[in-house]
């Protein structure tokens, strides 16, 4: 029908008196790397959880991959991959066992899983570690593995919630190479971050402040509009007025 | 179906990787079955008795001798006064004081009647109550013999005695272990099913892995079955182990059918696993889950008739007992193991367990939310 894979209109989420997400509207095009920026507590994760079908919105409309976030969460889930802020592969399973489990849950056949899993382990350079428990891997590798598992079943969209938190700069760079590679195969990437250098890697970015979308454009246009040399400055100008303190 | 297969594979891998839990599952039944029945012995022996004999007559000596030879009492002191005898109780050296007043023999002969004083330390309720009543029984017996000797010829009417001959059915020697061992088996299954399932799911919540599950198209019943089946199988393994220990150590071989026992164990496990799942859907971390599960399991255990007879509880307590799955299972295990009851005898209990299984699991599935 169209090339918009995520459409959000006036989406709102309240927790009692607190409005975590306040009437946000935006849409995401197919194959794009869409950055979601904001300070801690700006409502990024809450918005993402709604789009992933993990949380009910209070009001507003949204569709993901053509499915409604109120009623068709399970259909959404078939078409997306998700990597949460907190590492959430099974620490007491091996690399290969984690891959097998998540592949299986998305309905891939054993043969298909084996083929893709071998390729993935090779690509990640984890041949030696394939039979080791995930617990024993360094954080950078864990994050790369978590991302690979999130796109293992070829979803239309992958949601990444601060995927590079606590990761060293080199690994972060490699991680973004992987994101580009995934986007090149047609997967839409929806990523939250508060590293401003990463924001520069996105096709378009949204800046959230206190639950509202304050700006949405390409990094270049935003810099031009706010007469800033870097995204850091853009973000600082926008987020300066934030009322919510960082958590 | 294949999704479920992947889930089961993962669950079993995790269970077998956790050596502590695995060892506990195997060690717990063996050790508990060996230790608990020996410790949970309600037969009261060795009641410590302090005697105050103010009469020093032939009859008072006879009475003391009779009590001492009954096998239930150990005469720890012969105190000169009640006050001194009471000190033995205060020092916890005696449980019961028997006071024989002066003129005991004379009054019995002349008046045909005499009171004796029995004082019991009621801190240990069971021992006190049983010790007291044993003592009464011995004295009553003594009493009867005196009356017979005294008046046997003169007044036959007075000497009429009803002798009760009784036998303990299904547990001929009234041995406590026959009563306790089947109950400990129930205890084991309850712990395994109730706690492990609750903690397992809550651990996924704590680790954050449940979110990764919730964002997949996994069906709720697939996830729940994936958690249920492995523990159900482990439960049946433990049950088998328990039956083996029971036979090897205590020589108890179920009189009734094994098929019936396993059928009940299978349904009971589903019910208790459902309970564990339900707890896990209402709690956020292992501490909460442990606390909530413990609260209920304690009530289940103490009210189930595992330790005390449900029939002798007050009416409202019987109603509560009725509402715990443990009560029905304990009853059936005892009936089948000791008495050899068939399915017809335990139909009602079967129905209750099925209802518990269905209700608890449906409730758990209903309350488990993939989208909050």
UniProtKB/TrEMBL annotation, chain A:
GO terms for molecular function: ATP binding. Keywords: ATP-binding, Nucleotide-binding. The keyword ATP-binding applies. Residues 6-235 form the ABC transporter domain. Coiled coil: none annotated. It comes from the Bacteria. SUPFAM superfamilies: P-loop containing nucleoside triphosphate hydrolases (SSF52540). PANTHER family: ABC TRANSPORTER G FAMILY MEMBER 20 ISOFORM X1 (PTHR43038:SF3), ATP-BINDING CASSETTE, SUB-FAMILY H, MEMBER 1 (PTHR43038). This is ABC transporter ATP-binding protein.
Automatic annotation (TrEMBL), chain B:
InterPro entries: ABC-2_transporter_component, ABC2_TM, ABC2_TM_bact-type. It comes from the Bacteria. Keywords: Cell membrane, Membrane, Transmembrane, Transmembrane helix, Transport. Gene3D superfamilies: abc type-2 transporter like domain. The chain crosses the membrane at residues 21-40, 178-202, 229-253, 259-279, 291-310, 350-368. It is a multi-pass membrane protein. Belongs to the ABC-2 integral membrane protein family. This is ABC transporter permease. It comes from Chitinophaga qingshengii.
